[in-house]
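Fold it.
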Amino acid sequence: MAQETPDIIYTIVDEAPELARGSLLPIITSFSEAAGINVETRDISVAARILALFPELLSDDQKVSDDLAELGELVKTPEANVIKLPNVSASVPQLEAAIKELQGQGYPIPSYPADPQTDAEKAIRAKYDTIKGSAVNPVLREGNSDRRSAKAVKEYAKANPHRMGKWTSASKTTVASMPGNDFFANEKAATITAAQAGGAKIVFTAKDGTETVLKSGLKYAEGEVVDATFLSAKALRAYIKAEVESMEPGVLFSVHLKATMMKVSDPIIFGHFVSVYLEDFIAKHGASLDWNPNDGIGELDKLIADNAEMKADLKAALEARPPLYMVNSDKGITNLHVPSDVIIDASMPAVIKAGGIGWGPDGKAADTKCCIPDNSYACVYDETVEYFKETGTLDVTTCGAVSNVGLMAQKAEEYGSHPTTFEMKADGKVEIILDTGDVLHSHAVEAGDIWRSCTAKKAPILDWIQLGIERFDATGTGAFWLDANRAHDAELIKYVAPALKAAGKDIPIMAPREATRFSFVEMRKGKDVVTITGNVLRDYLTDLFPILELGTSAKMLSIVKLMNGGGMFETGAGGSAPKHVQQVVEENHLRWDSLGEFCALGESYAFLAASRGKAKAAVLSTAVEEATQKLLLNGKSPERKVGENDNRSSHYWFARYWAEALAAQSTDAGLAAHFAPIAKELVEKEEIILDELKISEGEPADLGGYYHADPAKIASVMRPSATLNAIIG
């Protein structure tokens, strides 16, 4: 770690946000240096995290530092000021693809052992499993989330409404969840007392009395909420079978999970959908295939590519089932192809925004049955669908803004459950046993069931409640989304209700279904609404509402007030990033919108000014806000097609407007004098710069890799204007 904490750390990540960094960060660095502010980077990309696992196998010039671990310590300090871009939460297929790419580039790292047999293979698998799924966020999120649309962004969206699909009462789109025996129904929760605080372990006891310690070394603190629950595999498969068999003609079948963040449970659930859907094919060919349904139909396609009989049988099996919701109809990529292709917080809002419509194998739009097995959060989407059937399409020109305060600090709730989630190998019981000898939670389970435990610590809960109160006061309307009939939520209510009483605040506490309708009703009136939720709902709602209001969640302002005084500023969702990269490779046009980065940058400067007394940072912050507003008003955001504005030209306009704002301000004469000639030159050379930026558009672009691209090639692709580069430096 550097001896002195950098003023700002900007993260190196993956996919489209990383390509955008290649163009935007040089601008940020140049403008910051003029104000005496140093900006450094730290690499939290999936490729860097892979390489950091195996320093003993790499040459000196191949070794990388463990930047995630460093940032994990930094965010616990008051000096932290991190701009965090969205990183890949790798599923197994993504992880394997990244490993293969790195191996092809000469990095002597081991392959991912899908079925480890030896101790060495098990050790390698254990290392790789630490970076699957949500490996970054639990490390960095040492604070709770305050996520909302910037005022300029919201006003622009109202004045320039995005396209929305039409909702009617005749829509056959539905959300289907399990009738019971899911995580919601089986959940138990307790708040740790002073007498219970200390160590604990998770123990599986088979029917013959054999005990297996699934997890040891757990530590629970007084006031910590500890949950345990399981989802029945038999009940899940019966539910899937029933939903497949009850499909109406003309309706698409789909499942919506989060196999990236919920990296243990959801790939297994996804695999059950695949295996039930293809049960006839598996019955005939499964024994002869080295294929795990958890990996999806895409992997099966690769395995049987040279087997005409199996290919014909697979085609027949798919045609015998209801048509699938498609990820890409043109390429035949279905909802069941890859576990990480259909991520619920992006896929469900997309269906809802389109008026309940998905795309079928025939390339045509159709209503969709959306299977979300667990009732913990399925009700939010179910209520949203039913609400729009009743009321029609949302008017984005008049609706209010829905923001969120999310409990996520210190691995709160399900997103911190990966080390304590297990697929049962036999019938028996699972218990959480405290060092006192007391059994905190116990469940009878069967082979194949998915059992998990998660926690929420006292300090983050109290911090979340206070942040929720602050944002409610600022917003005027909102609610705590907690269900008294859910075990975990009932424990949180024991914290929330007394805190609200002590503060003299009358903020409603509503179950998620009721809170969903309440929020839509109030926003329809033009009111701004704050949703105060747990971690998973934070993730889901900060896509659902922004995608409906703004057309995208990438334009949200996301502030993480770190509990020890620092700040982290997140830049929005990256769910569409793979398609953006594909377009760059094919035709050198990047439609990624860096509006989230602009918003985070302005907040980061403002925080730097307040926390370290750097007055020039405040000037930069104000100018960023002015530049962002002007960029939106003048329609300089990226567009979809070659020849239109893209990410690079958008960055030119941002730099120009930013320089103009700095040159025009009177707070800091030195900055005004520095940026006046820069602004003048950016204006005078507009035509030259824009021509240079578009000179290679429409042609294929070579990035030198997907997960581990070549920095020189990225610079060539993302900074093609020598004129702009010379002005900015």
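The chain has a mean pLDDT of 95.
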